[in-house]
Amino acid sequence: MTRSVKIAIGSVFIGILVLAIKTLAWWLTGSVALMSDALESIVNVATALAALLAIHIAAQPADADHPFGHHKAEYFSAVLEGVLIVVAAVLILREAWGAWLQPEPIQQVGMGLIINLSAGVLNAVWCFVLLREGRKLNSPALVADGKHLLTDVFSSAGVAIGVGAAALTGWLWLDAALAALVAVNILWSGWQVIRGSVGGLMDAAVPEEDLSEMRAIISANAEGAVEAHDLRSRRAGQAVFLEFHLVVPGDMTVDCAHEICDRIEHALQDAIAGCRVTIHVEPEHKAKHSGIVVL
């Protein structure tokens, strides 16, 4: 079992525990704002399950039907997370509108807030784990899950403050207004998750700083070649695909050209986790006198 799968399983258990705690807080208080917080936790459980399934699929080795692997499964999971987040936001807005029209008094505020805040602390700790490990493992599904959980942490804190203020002032409309604000925050989170995943599904190039690192590695390890050009890249889950043309002297043997390619490939794979390199060797008259200059 890979580390990514273990973390994804942990997310499912944490999500169920937080959902139970927040549901208890809502049951004690009757607050629609705390209900919205609990409803978002249902989405957390669903997205954690989707992330677990996607990471399991993405970890499967390449086969005859999928020669480049199954890495993009994680992007489908992240898109599904975004859609579920939007659905949750719409449901919360519906409940908030009902509470705005017919506000209800909040019960056992102190105990309810203490219980709800304990769930927020648990979410904050796990959010840190997801973001740190997701970036370390280049897992879009874990990062998306962590970013969504981060918005949950902030919205839970805001809800707790607002519910306390509503109980102290007697302004019951604050409860419904806070639920609506939570919904808007969730909508923004869902949009961010979907936007980031669509880039991966559309084979967007890796960030410019990563490309600069790749060019420097190629330049430093291509001794004997003339130049490298037409560098193209894309990220698919935990894998980074890189291809380019390497121009070598016309009289260079195949063995020597292959040795240069191996040297570049190993250097890239050592520096960039999950890097898959394809090099097209060309004779000197194909040089474009642009691109990557060999040091």
UniProtKB/TrEMBL annotation:
It comes from Alloyangia pacifica. GO terms for biological process: intracellular zinc ion homeostasis. This is Protein p34. Residues 207-284 form the Cation efflux protein cytoplasmic domain. It is a multi-pass membrane protein. It is found in: Cell membrane. It comes from the Bacteria. GO terms for cellular component: plasma membrane. Belongs to the cation diffusion facilitator (CDF) transporter (TC 2.A.4) family. NCBIfam families: CDF (TIGR01297). GO terms for molecular function: cadmium ion transmembrane transporter activity; ferrous iron transmembrane transporter activity; zinc efflux antiporter activity. InterPro entries: Cation_efflux, Cation_efflux_CTD, Cation_efflux_CTD_sf, Cation_efflux_TM, Cation_efflux_TMD_sf, CDF_Transporter. Pfam families: Cation_efflux (PF01545), ZT_dimer (PF16916). Keywords: Cell membrane, Membrane, Transmembrane, Transmembrane helix, Transport.
